[in-house]
Amino acid sequence: MFSAVILAGGIGARMRQDLPKQFLTVGGKPMILHTLERLEKLDEVSEVVVVCHPQYKALLWEHIAAYMLKKPYTVIDGGETRQESAHLGVQAAKCPNILLHEAARPFVTTEEFRALLAFDAENVTYGLDIPFTVLTRDGDTVDGILERSRLVNIQLPQKFSREKLLSAYARADEEGRRFTEDASLLFYYTKEPVKILEGRPTNIKITNAMDLKTGEAIYKEYIVGRV
Question: Are 63 and 52 in contact (CB under 8 A)?
Answer without folding.
Answer: no
